[in-house]
C-alpha cells in the first residue's frame, strides 16, 4: 500500500502546468532568414567523461518550426571523420532523418520519415535508438514516421555536439526555429513521447541527460537545464536570433481542502489497457483524470472499485481521488 500525507495538493506534471513550458526559441538560420544575417549555432563540448558520449539506447527530441524548404536542414548532430561514431538528426526535403553512425563515410544507418513537414508551424520531432530491438526510429508529433533495423551499437568519441549545424562542420544549413531540445539515454516509447512532448520539466527526470529550452538567455552561454552540466556556447551570438517558443508553461494547479491524515490507497494494474482497480481503506467520493498537461479529461464515479479507461488515448495521466480523509494523487499509463 502507498501512504501519502497531503496538505494542499498542487498537481505539477513533470514541472507541469498547462500546455507549456517555454516562451523563447532559437533561430538556426543562414542568409536572409537570420535576423542579423548571422549563422548562429550552438556548440556543446563532449570531451572525455561527458555523459553525452552516448553508449546504448538514446532518444533525441525537439520542437521545430521550419522557415524555408531546404534540401538539408541540420538540427542536432555530433560526428567527425573516421571511426568516432556519433548520431545526427536533420531534415531532408522537410522529412525527418536520423543517423546512427560508426563511420560517417563507410558505416552508418539511416532512417527517413514519410511525412514532409509544413512550413510555418511547430512540429515535435524525435528519434530513438534501441540496441535490444536493433531499431532506429523517427517520430513526428508523437507518431511513428519511419523505422529501420540496425545492428550498429552506439559509439560517440566526438568532442562537440552541435545544435543548428552539421556535426562535422560549423556550416549552418537550413532555416528553422528550434525549441525544447532534449537528449535521453533511453529509447522512449511512442506512448512516452506522446505523453511528454508538450509537458513541462524540472530537469531532474530519470534518464534525461541534457535539456535546452533557450529561455532567459542574455549572453552567448547555452545552459543545460538538467544537473548534468552539459552547457554550451552560441557561436556568432546575437540577441535578435531568438523568438517565440513552441509553447509556454504556466502553473496549472488544482487546489483541495487541507488534510492532516494518512491515506492508504493503491491502483493497479499500471500500465493498464481498459480498467484500473482501486484498493482503498477509505470511502471514495469522486475521481478525476487529468492529462499530463494538467487539463481535466473526465470525472468518474467508482464502480465496484474499478474505473473504465478504455476510451482514453494511449499516454500518461494523473488520477486524483477525493476521499473522506483527503486527496490521493497517482500517475498511470494507458496502453
TrEMBL record:
<feature type="signal peptide">
    <location>
        <begin position="1"/>
        <end position="20"/>
    </location>
</feature>
<dbReference type="GO" id="GO:0005975">
    <property type="term" value="P:carbohydrate metabolic process"/>
</dbReference>
<dbReference type="InterPro" id="IPR006558">
    <property type="entry name" value="LamG-like"/>
</dbReference>
<dbReference type="GO" id="GO:0004553">
    <property type="term" value="F:hydrolase activity, hydrolyzing O-glycosyl compounds"/>
</dbReference>
<dbReference type="Pfam" id="PF13385">
    <property type="entry name" value="Laminin_G_3"/>
</dbReference>
<protein>
    <submittedName>
        <fullName>T9SS type A sorting domain-containing protein</fullName>
    </submittedName>
</protein>
<dbReference type="InterPro" id="IPR026444">
    <property type="entry name" value="Secre_tail"/>
</dbReference>
<feature type="domain" description="LamG-like jellyroll fold">
    <location>
        <begin position="56"/>
        <end position="191"/>
    </location>
</feature>
<dbReference type="Pfam" id="PF18962">
    <property type="entry name" value="Por_Secre_tail"/>
</dbReference>
<keyword id="KW-0732">Signal</keyword>
<keyword id="KW-1015">Disulfide bond</keyword>
<dbReference type="InterPro" id="IPR013320">
    <property type="entry name" value="ConA-like_dom_sf"/>
</dbReference>
Amino acid at each position: 500500500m502507498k501512504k501519502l500525507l497531503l496538505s494542499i495538493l498542487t498537481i505539477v506534471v513533470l514541472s507541469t502546468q498547462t500546455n507549456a513550458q517555454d516562451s523563447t526559441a532559437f533561430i538556426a538560420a543562414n542568409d536572409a532568414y537570420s535576423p542579423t544575417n548571422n549563422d548562429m549555432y550552438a556548440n556543446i563540448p563532449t570531451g572525455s567523461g561527458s555523459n553525452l558520449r552516448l553508449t546504448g539506447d538514446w532518444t533525441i527530441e525537439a520542437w521545430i518550426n521550419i522557415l524555408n524548404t531546404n534540401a538539408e536542414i541540420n538540427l542536432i548532430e555530433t560526428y567527425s571523420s573516421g571511426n568516432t561514431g556519433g548520431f545526427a538528426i536533420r531534415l531532408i526535403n522537410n522529412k525527418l532523418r536520423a543517423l546512427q553512425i560508426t563511420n560517417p563515410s563507410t558505416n552508418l544507418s539511416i532512417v527517413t520519415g514519410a511525412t514532409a513537414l509544413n512550413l510555418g508551424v511547430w512540429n515535435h520531432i524525435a528519434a530513438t535508438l534501441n540496441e535490444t530491438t536493433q531499431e532506429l526510429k523517427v517520430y513526428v508529433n508523437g507518431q511513428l514516421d519511419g523505422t529501420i533495423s540496425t545492428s550498429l551499437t552506439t559509439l560517440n568519441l566526438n568532442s562537440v555536439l552541435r545544435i543548428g549545424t552539421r556535426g562535422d562542420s560549423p556550416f549552418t544549413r537550413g532555416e528553422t526555429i528550434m525549441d525544447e531540445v532534449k537528449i535521453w539515454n533511453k529509447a522512449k516509447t511512442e506512448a512516452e513521447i506522446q505523453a511528454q512532448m508538450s509537458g513541462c520539466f524540472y530537469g531532474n527526470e530519470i534518464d534525461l541527460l541534457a535539456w535546452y529550452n533557450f529561455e532567459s538567455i542574455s549572453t552567448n552561454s547555452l545552459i543545460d537545464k538538467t544537473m548534468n552540466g552539459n552547457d554550451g556556447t552560441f557561436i556568432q551570438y546575437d540577441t535578435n536570433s531568438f523568438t517565440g517558443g513552441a509553447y509556454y508553461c504556466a502553473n496549472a494547479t488544482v487546489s483541495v481542502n487541507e488534510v492532516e491524515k494518512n491515506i492508504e490507497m493503491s491502483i493497479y494494474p499500471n500500465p493498464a489497457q481498459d480498467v484500473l482497480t482501486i484498493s482503498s481503506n477509505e470511502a471514495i467520493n469522486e475521481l478525476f483524470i487529468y492529462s499530463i498537461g494538467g487539463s481535466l479529461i473526465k470525472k468518474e464515479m467508482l464502480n465496484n472499485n474499478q474505473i473504465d479507461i478504455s476510451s482514453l488515448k494511449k499516454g500518461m495521466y494523473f488520477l486524483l481521488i477525493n476521499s473522506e480523509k483527503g486527496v490521493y494523487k497517482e500517475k498511470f499509463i494507458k496502453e
